[in-house]
Amino acid sequence: MKNPTQVTPEKKITEYGFKKAKKIFFILIAIISYWQAYEYVSEKPNIIIYIEDSQKVERKFETKISISNGSESIDKKDIVRPISINFNAEIDSLMTTKSVVDPEYEINGKSILMSFDLFNNSEQFKFYIYSKSRPIISDIDYRIKNIESIQFYDFQNKSKFIQRVIIWIILLVLGILLFCDALIVITKDFGLGEIKSFIHNFPLSHKNKKEFTKGYLEIYKKYKLRFKPPLAFMHGILENTLKTFPLKSKKDLDFIRNMLDLKTEFYTFYRFRTAFIVISPIVVVISLIAIILNFFFYDLYNLNQFISVTSINKIIITVLFIITVII
Fold first, then answer.
1. How deeply is 252 buried, as exposed, middle or buried, from its count of CB atoms within 10 A (0-12, 13-18, 19+)?
2. Do 48 and 140 form a contact (C-beta atoms < 8 A)?
3. Residue from 132, 85, 265 nearest 192 by CA
4. pLDDT digits (tens, 9 = 90+) for 199-209
């Protein structure tokens, strides 16, 4: 025979641990998210190659190329295989410019091979190449210690704007839709309040469980909220809760009421949906900022010389995620 005062695991979690566990859970997520964001932000870009300009001079194209180092310093001993910039056009000649870096160049058909004795962090050098047609970088080959990737950008053959901002357009649209949904949910608060009032004021006992269930479902039916569980589902939740937990004392009654209150909010996603009344405007604003940054990326010289489009998107989306978790 069960002890009437026995505390079940579910009851113990709900009474003593639910709120604390939820707070600890979100704190852990916030810490993990912050650490991820820190890694993204503190991660320095590797070597970035830019085709800044390409103009036809007499019978040849003069193309200006700049290379900047955002990683740690590179020594000659770190270069296992020199950087090979491969183009779609034959390279006829090359002209260097004065720089603190003293690279060695070698033209090999459609490719330019280069190495250097020392290429320090934040240093940059430039050179010009000459070809019969407008050169476009097809790929880059290399093997250098601690250099994971070399990114390249062509200011005249930019990647399509829509490809750079598609994720932000999706987030912008979602932010607007979820904000509208949050507004609708909040305008239906009176209906939810009636359900809660019924749960806490009905004189529930062993004898009138059926009357309680019937009354709850009648009020729930009047709760005009889109995307809520059907009556049959909530009927099962009520019956299961009333059968699972004892109803011997006022403490038991308060517990059941709190459980039903919690489950009503949980299954209608009330807390989750209404949170977007605050989150969505932030999502919309950050998405607009990201779209603007992506649009003007190639025109912001001080920006594009030190960071890539991919890195910008990673940083912004990580910051957005942290803000969302904190809220």
1. middle
2. no
3. 265
4. 899 888 888 88
Closest among 250, 66, 234, 214 to 151, alpha carbons compared? 66
The tokens for 211 are 């009357």
CA distance 304 to 302: 6
Q: Which region holds residue 58: left if phi is over 0, alpha if psi is between -120 and 50, else beta?
A: left
What is the per-residue pLDDT across 94-143, written as a single tens digit (0 to 9) for each? 898 888 888 888 998 999 998 888 888 878 889 999 999 888 888 889 88
Instruction: Name, in order, each residue with C-beta under 8 angstroms of 124's C-beta and a sequence gap of 6 or more.
Output: 66, 67, 68, 69, 99, 101, 305
Using CA atoms, how far residue 322 sits from 13, 25, 38, 44, 318, in Å, is 27, 14, 11, 21, 6
Where does residue 42 rank: exposed (0-12), middle (13-18), buried (19+ CB within 10 A)?
A: exposed
Amino acid at 210: K
CA–CA separation, 194 vs 201, rounded Å? 10
- Specify the pairing of strand 150-154 against strand 47-57: parallel
Residue 210 carries which DSSP code?
Answer: H
For residue 67, the number of C-alpha atoms closer than 13 Å in the C-beta half-sphere is 22
Q: Which one-letter DSSP state was computed for residue 89?
A: S
